[in-house]
């Protein structure tokens, strides 16, 4: 064997020995990763948790509202309920995509409109008005995982997922009657009303008349219900205007309008008379109509409020918190501020209204309205 060849063989042998020493004398190259893997996992896991953990996913929460026949901007009942939805959305951080409404054009569509929200997975569905009660109760029975809010829908057969938002309208009407009789100078006041098929409208009327009589026993009252069907009674401003004009022609100098857009027509007719120089007043309903019906400003001394907006907002918030109250949920009522008429309402009348409200709240004043009793 040549010396050069022997030299090469010796060199290769030396390199192999050095490589084995560097590996700690281990014979299998795959053993090192197997032993080192636990240590690598222990050091890397915290880093992954700290920098790569996914953010908490926001739970979807959708709210739908179905109006009674009419519009979402009716400046009264439907609008007040929708404002409650928006108030709750602001509080809960919901977006415009989380809240929707459907305007009912025909009463036969109540159930179909509610079911649109059911089929699209809405968490809370609000239906506005007494007339939607049957359709809402049916939907709530068939969909126990959805929460339903029925504005002006008394619950005779309560369900845990269905809250009827109701109000003591007779008390709000009573305060309006006290105010009307106190401002009256002709001895005659009037009320232009929706249909007597709706108990809350009857409660407003009965309370209004009782409050007026308690203040001025000999006062003359002209109270007129809309003669049409339920689907027409709240969307007829022309009839409301004509009826208010007739009442003023008969001497009424204060007119209470309680009937959605129909009542709004009455208020605007009185406002036109006030602008023409006639000393007349009008009183709105459901919400503070000074904010929603500017056309009535010339005569609008106050409104008999059902606090629908905060009532709807509170029930939605409770639903989101998992604290939803089924059955009947009683909202608050009261008179709206006098706004530009603040100086035209005498202090003794303001004191009387404050005392009357206290009596209504503590039960020492009875409106005389006892439905079913």
Keywords:
six-stranded parallel sheet, alpha/beta, Rossmann fold, 373 residues, 13 helices
Structural write-up:
The protein is of the alpha/beta class. The protein folds into 2 domains: about 65-165, 3-Layer(aba) Sandwich (Rossmann fold), CATH 3.40.50.2300; about 170-305 and about 340-360, Response regulator (Rossmann fold), CATH 3.40.50. The protein has 13 helices and 12 strands. The strands form 2 sheets. The chain has a 6-stranded parallel β-sheet, with helices on both faces. Helix 6 (about 170-185) runs parallel beside helix 7 (about 200-215). The N and C termini lie far apart (about 130 Å). The model is unreliable at about 1-60 (pLDDT under 50).
Give the structure's gist in a few sentences.
This protein is an alpha/beta fold and 373 residues long. The protein is 47% helix and 17% strand. Helix 3 packs parallel to helix 12, helix 6 (169-183) runs parallel beside helix 7 (199-215) and helix 6 (169-183) runs antiparallel to helix 13 (347-362).
What is the 3D form?
Answer: globular
The CATH superfamily of the largest domain is known as: Response regulator
Number of domains: 2
| Widest beta sheet: strand line-up | 2-1-3-4-5-11
| CATH fold node name of the largest domain | Rossmann fold
Query: Which sequence of SSEs, written as H and E, runs from N to C?
Result: HHEHEHEHEEHEHEHHEHEHEHEEH
Question: In angstroms, what separates the terminal alpha carbons?
Answer: 128 Å
How many distinct beta strands?
Answer: 12
Helix content: 40-55%
Cα Rg: 35 Å
Average of the residue pLDDT scores: 87
Put simply, the count of helices is 13
Can you tell me the CATH class of the largest domain? Alpha Beta
């Amino acid at each position: 064997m040549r010396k050069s060849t022997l030299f090469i063989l010796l060199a290769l042998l030396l390199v192999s020995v050095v490589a084995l020493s560097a590996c700690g004398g281990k014979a299998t190259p795959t053993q090192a990763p197997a032993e080192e893997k636990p240590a690598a996992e222990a050091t890397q896991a915290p880093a992954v948790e700290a920098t790569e953990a996914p953010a908490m996913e926001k739970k979807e929460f959708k709210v739908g509202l179905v109006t009674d026949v009419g519009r979402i901007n009716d400046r009264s009942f439907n609008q007040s309920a929708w404002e409650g939805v928006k108030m709750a959305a602001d509080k809960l951080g919901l977006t415009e995509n989380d809240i929707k409404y459907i305007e009912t054009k025909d009463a036969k569509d109540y159930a179909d409109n509610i079911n649109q929200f059911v089929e699209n997975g809405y968490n809370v569905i609000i239906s506005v008005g007494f007339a939607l009660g049957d359709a809402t109760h049916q939907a709530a029975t068939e969909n126990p995982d959805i929460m339903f809010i029925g504005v002006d829908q008394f619950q005779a057969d309560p369900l845990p997922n269905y809250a009827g938002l109701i109000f003591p309208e007779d008390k709000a009407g009573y305060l309006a009657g006290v105010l009307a009789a106190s401002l009256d100078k002709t001895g005659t006041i009037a009320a232009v009303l929706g249909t007597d098929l709706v108990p809350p409208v009857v409660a407003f009327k009965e309370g209004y008349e009782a409050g007026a009589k308690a203040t001025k026993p000999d006062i003359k009252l002209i109270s007129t219900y809309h003669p049409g069907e339920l689907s027409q009674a709240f969307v007829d401003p022309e009839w409301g205007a004509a009826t208010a004009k007739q009442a003023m022609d008969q001497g009424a100098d204060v007119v209470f309008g309680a009937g959605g857009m129909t009542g709004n027509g009455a208020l605007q007719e009185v406002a036109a008379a006030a602008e023409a120089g006639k000393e007349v007043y009008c009183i709105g309903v459901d919400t503070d109509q000074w904010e929603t019906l500017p056309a009535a400003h010339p005569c609008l001394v106050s409104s008999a409020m059902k606090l629908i907006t905060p009532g709807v907002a509170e029930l939605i918030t409770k639903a989101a918190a998992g604290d939803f109250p089924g059955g009947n949920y009683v909202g608050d009522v009261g008179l709206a501020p006098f706004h530009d008429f603040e100086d035209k309402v005498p202090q003794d009348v303001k004191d009387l209204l404050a005392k009357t409200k206290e009596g209504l709240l503590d039960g020492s004043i009875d409106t005389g309205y006892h439905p079913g009793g």
